[in-house]
Amino acid sequence: MKLFALKGSEILGASVARALWTELDPCEERDFEDGEHKARPMVSVRGEDVYVLHSLAESPGSSVNDKLCKLLFFIATCRDNGASRVTALVPYLAYARKDRQTKARDPITTRYIAQLFEAVGTGRVVGLEVHNFAAFQNAFRCETVHLDARRLFCPEIRSLADSLPVVFFSPDGGGMKRVQLLKEAFEADTGLTTSFGFMEKRRSRGVVSGDLFAGDVKGAAVFIVDDMINTGGTILRAAEACRDRGAESVHAVATHGLFGAGVEQLFESLALDRILVTDSVAAASEAVMNFPQARIDVLPVGPLIGEAVRRLHTHGSIGDLLGMED
Predict the structure, then answer these.
(1) What pLDDT digit, counting tens, does each position of 97-153 carry?
(2) How far apart are CA 93 and CA 56, in angstroms?
(3) How far apart are CA 67 and CA 29, in angstroms?
(4) How far apart are CA 73 and CA 50, in angstroms?
(5) DSSP 8-state secondary structure symbol assigned to residue 219
(6) Who's near 161: CB < 8 A, 6+ residues apart?
């Protein structure tokens, strides 16, 4: 087995390697003056089961498109040089939010991304908490593996809730299934009974609307659950609504802390007590350093990905890893 991590994902890659009791294999990446680049493995991959990790979130000096292109080219060169199979480990999968047409002539970008991975010979794509699980499975024709961080979050949620009743809350109608799964995992792990709530959110041409609020949050520890936090507007809107209705404490739970432009308003708000994210993208750990007032807890996801790689390489059970029912 060979394990590589491309530039921008080396820290997470090293965490995955430690979980496997190994080290990252070396690779070369060169940028040329005209904006082109090349990347290649510095060890033989012939006949090897190759895993390439790259999180496709924008970072300073490297756009989403740059990272996607470099990952695809690296996978292709591994295949050209005899790798028996290449698995793309993509903790954050770019373009996953556009998985259907909502306006005339809309692109279905998730499907286009799948076609690109397949075209370069990717044997398997491993994603972490993709935006739409069903769309992810249906877009790809190669094998897909979907990981989630529910079991990582449960102990932290138990600690933050203390003795308060727990309410799991979706900031929009589209995320209710995600919230329900976390609720069920928490109840199974703790034996506690929790409640559920959600609020309406409609977005059209950048304008957010919707006033419906369902659930009793008064006196409770509320955990607003989403797959990602970018500007934080959706989370903040829900947090303020929960506070207005008497929530004792309000926390945000999201796998991907993208923390893009404008997120400062979320960090400065008193509506949230804590923000729980993983280190699936480098921006999460950087935000802890750059915004000490933000009250962010970053949970390591490298051990989960590492164990998934171990099981994939040895033909073990991913369902058991995730606690899925037979």
Answers:
(1) 877 777 888 888 899 999 999 999 999 999 999 988 888 888 899 999 999 999 999
(2) 6
(3) 12
(4) 14
(5) T
(6) 221, 223, 249
Strand partners, 40: 28
Compute CA distances 289 → 59, 153, 170, 249, whole Å: 15, 21, 28, 24
Chain centroid to Cα 245, Å, comes to 30
Q: What is the pLDDT of residues 222-249, one digit of tens each?
A: 999 999 999 998 899 999 999 999 999 9
Residue 101 identity (one-letter amino acid): Q
Q: Tell me which residues of the chain have a pLDDT lower than 50.
A: none
Spell out the domains of the chain, with CATH numbers in brackets: 2-148+303-322 (3.40.50.2020), 150-299 (3.40.50.2020)
- Which residues are 268's β-sheet partners? none
Q: What are 136-144's contacts with CB under 8 Å, separation 24+?
A: 136/93, 136/96, 136/99, 136/110, 139/99, 139/110, 139/111, 139/113, 139/114, 140/114, 141/114, 142/114, 142/117, 142/118
User: According to the model, what pLDDT value does residue 202 have?
Assistant: 64
Give CA separation, 54 vs 26, 64, 221, 314, in Å: 14, 11, 35, 22
Give me the pLDDT at residue 226, please. 94
CA separation (Å) from 114 to 4, 51, 95, 138?
Answer: 21, 17, 10, 10
